[in-house]
Structure formats: structure tokens, C-alpha cells
Amino acid sequence: MNDTINLLKSHRSIRKYKSDPIPQEYVDEILTSAQMASSSSHVQAYSVIGVMDQEKKKKLSILSGNQTYVADCPLFFVWCADLYRLKAACDMEQTEMISGTMENFIVSTVDVALAAQNAAIAAESLGLGIVYIGGIRNQSKEVTELLQLPELVYPVFGMCLGFPDQDPMVRPRLQTNMIYHQENYNTSKTTNELMDYNQIINEYYLDRTKGKVDTNWSKQMSNKFQTASRNHLRKYLEDQGFGFSE
Amino acid sequence: MNDTINLLKSHRSIRKYKSDPIPQEYVDEILTSAQMASSSSHVQAYSVIGVMDQEKKKKLSILSGNQTYVADCPLFFVWCADLYRLKAACDMEQTEMISGTMENFIVSTVDVALAAQNAAIAAESLGLGIVYIGGIRNQSKEVTELLQLPELVYPVFGMCLGFPDQDPMVRPRLQTNMIYHQENYNTSKTTNELMDYNQIINEYYLDRTKGKVDTNWSKQMSNKFQTASRNHLRKYLEDQGFGFSE
Asked: Is this prediction's ipTM beyond 0.95?
């Protein structure tokens, strides 16, 4: 349809990078692009910590569940929801900030995701590869200490960036009519179409792993959602000043 | 730098649309682009409700705080975090889903934001304008009933789409070094640079409103964060099956 849509449609996560550093002007363009994403009432409730220091990347890699590409990528971004700056603005105006609401938690979490996705697209448009790292939530407190995050800031996800040194397949998504509903949510869609999707995903894994991985989507998902993960989050977030009382 | 980055950097929210409908092939491209965004462990924990029905758009417009552009745009998307489909996958595998954790809430909220931002960019690349509607969280329960959302689904934000019938200015963002920290979060950045930013934003408002609006960022933010908003959210989300106990 156009080059931008072709770019969006060709996304694959990249987990192996060339050693080449990322030019500073690329980083600048990526950050400026990130900032132009929409933000709820212009609150801009996010920050990015850019990590290039090898020792620190190594620590973050271990804290994220030993994902080696966190250490190996030339630049690692830690995307944080950030209400700290807004508190500073309230302090300037000598008003008391009410920060600990579900609404403010959602606003800051969405804000950082929109900005990060713009960054991802800008990076890919420059020939870089990226992968999001949810594992940054494995040990939130340790990451917070390592990056000296103040109150009202929490790391939502990481992102590795670098020039790709692999060319993986695009992973097939759910059928579009599974995620898109016209006028009303249609609960009757799920079962039959999930079975079709299971077959698509099964073939994708068999193909990608030359027959070694023989699974499908519902198997993967049911495995994943049988156990609660990252159980520290509620307490950690409250310790950081986020709140969920209303 | 390239066309995609130029597109990202030229974003402005559009709130006035031509009456022309959006061609179906555009909608298809927007949805396919949305689906290619990254998703945590491939969970794809989101759904979109596309609303074209005039009566329903009118109701959503009222429920979102009387934002007339919700009724006036040719297509309104309601972006939902969605764990319902994952429960269906667990049911298929006869396993019990653990849904009510902070982690699952974050995953689904981030997933829908990444997909929506891809949709926004795809739409803008096709010459459409968009605006996010956080007001969809004003009356979550009523929106949920109107769109027949099942358990484990919540509307995170709306999005108006249409061909632009206005050409607003780009709103200046925070200085990039305010949102970007190298290696560690730098709390010392805030005060002086916020004062500079206040001046930039003050000039932008004076310019955009021909002198009528004379405010700045810290004033706006301190006004906004003095009161808690959308206090129903915690209870509503728990009623929908989301949880925050850990």
C-alpha cells in the first residue's frame, strides 16, 4: 500500500545483532519520533533510560531472565512509566499531586507504550532491529536500584536495538476477524477459529525449527496462563508510589 | 531522515473530519498493520471494536464526555485489553487460567497500546487523521454494556479516524533530554528545564489561540493532577475479572 505500511507489516523481533554501534543521529531520530506519539492530555508520563555500558547491560540481561541479547545489543532502552516529572510540575505550582490511582497507572503505562512503539518503528525504518523485553519486570526492584529510578517511575519493558544479524520469519498473527469486531464484541468467534489458528501456528513452528518444535497457540497460552508470574509487581508498584485503591 | 520518520514527526491529533467514508481496503491495512506490532509472548491480548453505526457513535460520544468528534468521525475504534480469548484457549486445553494478576493487567494494557499505535501510524500514512479518546474510560461500565464486552475485556481508549478537515499545529514536546536518561535516571534535570518548557508551551498556546489561552505545562499538569479522576476504574476492572492482588 505504501512504504510505511510495508515496514509495519514486515516486523519481526530481532535477537542477534552486528557489533556496529548505532549512530548518534539515529538515536536522536528514534527519540524524537517516540516523543511525537500521542500522550493522554499531553502528560508525557514516560522516560527512557538508554544503556550502553557493557557491565550494566550484562546485569540487566541477568535480571531479565538471562536473555543474552540484552547484553549483546549495542543499545538497550528501558522504557519507564513516569509520574515523577508530573509531581515536579505540581511542586512548582505548589499543589499536591494525587498520583496513586488506577487511572494514573493506566495513563502512564499506555503513554510509554505508545512512545516505545513509535521508537520501534523509527528504528526499523533506519534498518535497525528491535525486540521488546518483558523480562525487565522479572526483578523490578533490582532494576529500579540499578538505574536509580526515583519514586513514581517503573520499568514497563526493555527494548534491544541494533543492526540485525539474523533474518527470522514473520510470525503469523491471529486471523484479523478474531481481533476485530464490528459494532459489538462477538464471543461466538473464538473456538473454531482458534483451531484454525492452532494449525497455522503449528506449521510455522515446525517450519522455523525444522520439525523440532511441535506446538500450537492454545497449548502455549494454556501453559503460560496456568501459573501466576511476577507476583511481586503489586507490592513493588505500591512501594514506588503507584496506587490501585480507586 | 526518511518518509516514515517524517510521518511520525508530523503527528497531530485530528478532531475534525471530512464526511468521506474510509475505504474498506484502508481499514484492512490498518488492522493488519496493528496486528504486526510486538505482543508479549505472542499472547495478542487485545481486541478492537469498530463502530460505524451513527446512533452508537453518538452514545459513545456522550459516554466519553460529550466529545462531538466521536460522533462525527466516520469510524470509531474502541481498543480493548482482552484476556477473554486466552481463557478460551485455556478452556480448549482444559486448564484453569490465572487471569487476575497485575502482570496480566499490564501485559494486556501494553499489548493493546502497541497495536493501536501501529494502527495510528498506518492510518496517518494513508492520509487519515486520528485522535485517541481516553474519555472512553469515563463510564467504563456503560461502554462495556453498549459494546457487549465479555468478562476479561476492558476498553482502554478509543480512536477516531477520518480524512482530516483541519490542519492544526504540531504541539511541542518536552525537551528530549527531559525524557531520555543515559545509563541512570537523572532527577536533577527537572526544575530548570521545566521552566524552559513552560515558556515554549505558553508561546504555542498563545499562538494557536491568538492570545486567548495563556497557560503553560506545569499549570495544566498541576490542575489535572490535583483531583483523582475515573475513580470507578478499580472496582469496574475487578468486576470484569482483572485483578491486582499480586
From this structure: yes
